[in-house]
Specification:
It is a multi-pass membrane protein. With 360 residues, the chain is of the alpha+beta class. The protein has helices at 2-13, 21-29, 37-54, 56-72, 81-118, 136-143, 146-172, 174-178, 185-225, 230-241, 244-265, 302-313, 322-331, 343-359, and strands at residues 15-17, 228-229, 271-274, 279-284, 294-300, 317-320. The protein has two domains: 21-121 and 134-227, no CATH class; 263-359, name from scop (3-Layer(aba) Sandwich). The protein is 69% helix and 7% strand. Helix 3 (37-54) packs antiparallel against helix 9 (185-225).
Length: 360
């Protein structure tokens, strides 16, 4: 039995269950989400090279204009503190106009890639300083963990595939590259820029494919890490729904309070109809205020006995009618008016009660 109990505790503590929505929300608030950094890099690179592809002529003209001004105008300027300062600001402005669109596209790509993976999330939890991260033993364990090995293999695979793609592009353009020595400087620079953009696009597409596979792996690893044991699910249920023992005590207390309120209504009844031992139903009727008599209390066995005792103590008439008591108990609730089919039987009983009270 002891070994069986230990086995049950082991299986209860084993994390085999999917994470609950509450657990997912908690880890999300801590910044723990399924996200691939490679996907962000691939999207940013793809968008940047796409911008260079469609606006390459504009960048080429801007670059050549900067070179022409540098060799034709700036070299003739007298070197002073003010002239160097103005020259630096002008060149910086021209470079900023070239770099700004690419920079904005990169920011947009990073935002889109993160939003598609994670959605909107703002948390400072990952930025908090934790001394446990400085533990050399834990750091050494992370270096030799299975996750580190997987990351190493991923890096090698990325380098190999991206290297193969860029080499393939260069190999297909080998003839064109060899003829660049016979062409002008502007043509050579344009050809090299076009070749670099093509290599970047093909490499980005290959990296995007690898990043998608990496995202699937990161999602699988994330789901695995946030799994819960059956005991953890029970503890969470207790926190959210409350301890079943406490809930049962609260319900019991509520029943006791409801019973107490019901018993306080028995002395106000006009008549208590009994079975005579198992059922009791207290009725009240006020002429002009009620369309029909209403049930103000009912009970079986011990409660029925208490109702009859209260009725006796407060001079409430008790009438024995077995079928009527059972029918009223089963077909009505406290506060309900009696059904129409019982009007005649209840009216006869109330008439008897009123005659009895007048005699008294």
């Amino acid at each position: 039995m002891k070994l069986l109990r230990l086995d049950l505790q082991f299986f209860a503590g084993e994390k085999t269950e999917k994470a609950t929505p509450r657990k997912r929300q908690e880890v999300r608030e801590k910044g723990q989400v399924a996200k691939s950094a490679d996907l962000n890099t691939a999207v940013v690179l793809l968008l940047v090279f796409a911008v260079l592809l469609f606006s390459g002529s504009l960048y080429q003209e801007t670059f050549f204009q900067l070179l022409r001004e540098s060799f034709q105008q700036y070299t003739r300027t007298d070197i002073t503190v003010d002239s160097v300062h103005l020259l630096f600001l002008r060149i910086l402005e021209q470079i900023a106009w070239v770099v700004a669109p690419i920079f904005l596209v990169a920011i947009f790509g990073a935002f889109i890639a993160n939003f598609l993976q994670v959605g909107f999330l703002f948390t400072t939890e990952p930025l908090q300083m934790k001394l446990s991260k400085l533990d050399p033993i834990q750091g050494f364990k992370r270096m030799l963990s299975l996750r580190s090995l997987v990351e190493l293999l991923k890096s090698i695979l990325k380098i190999a595939i991206v290297g193969f793609v860029t080499f393939f592009v260069l190999w297909t353009k080998l003839g064109q590259i060899l003829t660049l020595t016979t062409k002008s400087l502007s043509t050579t620079l344009s050809s090299l820029a076009s070749l670099a953009v093509q290599m970047g696009l093909y490499a980005s597409a290959a990296l995007l494919f690898l990043a998608f596979l990496d995202y699937l792996y990161q999602r699988f690893d994330f789901e695995k890490n946030i799994r819960m044991s059956k005991q953890e699910i029970k503890e969470e249920y207790k926190k959210t729904e409350g301890d079943p023992l406490i809930k049962s005590k609260i319900k019991q207390k509520q029943r006791e309070m409801a019973m107490k309120r019901m018993m306080q209504e028995v002395p106000k009844a006009d008549v208590v109809i009994t079975n005579p031992t198992h059922y009791a139903v207290a009725l009240k009727y006020e002429d002009g205020k009620m369309d029909a008599p209403i049930v103000i209390a009912k009970g079986v066995d011990y409660i029925a006995l208490k109702m009859k005792q209260l009725a006796k103590e407060h001079d409430v008439v008790t009438v024995e009618n077995r079928p009527l008591a059972r029918a009223l108990y089963s077909q009505t609730e406290i506060g309900d008016a009696i059904p129409e089919q019982f009007f005649k039987a209840v009216a006869e009983i109330l008439a008897y009660v009123y005659r009895l009270k007048r005699k008294i």
